[in-house]
Amino acid sequence: MELEDEGGSGTAGSHWKRRSAKDEIMAGIIGVSRYSNLTIAAMEDLGFYKGVYSKGEYMAFGNGVGCTLTNSKCITNSVSNVPSMFCTTNSRTASGYSCPSDRLAIGTCYTSTSCDSVPSNFQYFTGNTLCGLSGTLTDYCPIVTPYSNTGCMDGEITVMPGSYITSSSRCFDATSTITTSSRYSVTAVCAAVKCETDTYSIRLSGSDSWIDCPPSTTVNLASQSSISSGSVTCPAYGAVCFSWNDEASLDPDDRSRKKE
Question: What residues form the membrane-spanning segments (predicted)?
C-alpha cells in the first residue's frame, strides 16, 4: 500500500495515500474513516496482532478496481480510468449532482479551469482545459466532493429537491434523471434507508412507502409521491448500511460547503 507523499509533516509518510484509500481510517484527511482490511493487515504485520478480517468495514472507494488504480493515471486524455473514483465533469448545477464515495451527502465533481500551476505529470485533461484541485491529497485527481449544506442527515432541503433528510439517509445516484413533482431535475438524491440483516429499502421525501433496493439493481422512483419520473442505482449493502457518529437508525422516522 502506498504511503502519502502529499501534505505536511504530520501527514506525508505516515498515512495511506488518499488517492488510493480516500475513506480509510489511515487516510490523511479525516472523513468517514472506515476501518478496512488494509489497516487490519498493517496491524497484523506489526507482529503483535492477529487480524480478524471478517470485521473489516466495507469501503466503496477503490473497491474492486484492481491494478488499474496503481498502474494507471486516474484520467487519461480527459477520460477517467476509474469512473467509480475519479470524475471528469465541471458542473455546479442540480443536473450535475453526484454521490461522493461515502454517500453521506450530495456532491459534485470539483475541477478548476486555472491549471497553469498544476505540475505537468498531474495534468490529465486534453489541452489542460480542466484540472483537479490542490489540497485534496489525490494527486490532483478530481473526486466528487459534497457541498456544505447538502448532507443527507442535516442538509437544506431547499437545495436538495426530492431528498429525504434523516439520520439514516444516504446518497443515491440517478440512473435516469429524477424529476420531482415540483419539476426540478436532479441526478442524485438522499433517500431514507431501512436496513435489514443483508437487505435494505429506501423512501423519498413525501412518501409513506418503502421500496426494496437490491444491490446492483435499478429502482424506479415514480411510485414515490414527490417524484414524477426517474430511477436510482442501488449500491452495495455496506455502502449505505453503516453507522455514522452513532446516529444511524433502523427506523428513519426520527427525522431531525454551501449550495445556493
Answer: none
The whole-angstrom separation of Cα 86 and Cα 82 is 6
* Residue owning grid cell 446492483: 216
How many angstroms separate the CA atoms of 127 and 125, rounded?
6
Annotated binding site for Zn(2+): 15
| Residue-range domains of the chain with CATH | 1-59 (3.90.132.10), 149-240 (2.30.34.10)
Alpha-carbon gap, residue 255 to 179, rounded angstroms: 23
Share the mean pLDDT of the chain.
Answer: 87
Q: Tell me what pLDDT residue 242 has.
A: 80
- Extract the annotated binding site: 15
Rg of the Cα atoms in the chain: 19
Is residue 91 within 8 A of residue 108, CB to CB? The reply is yes
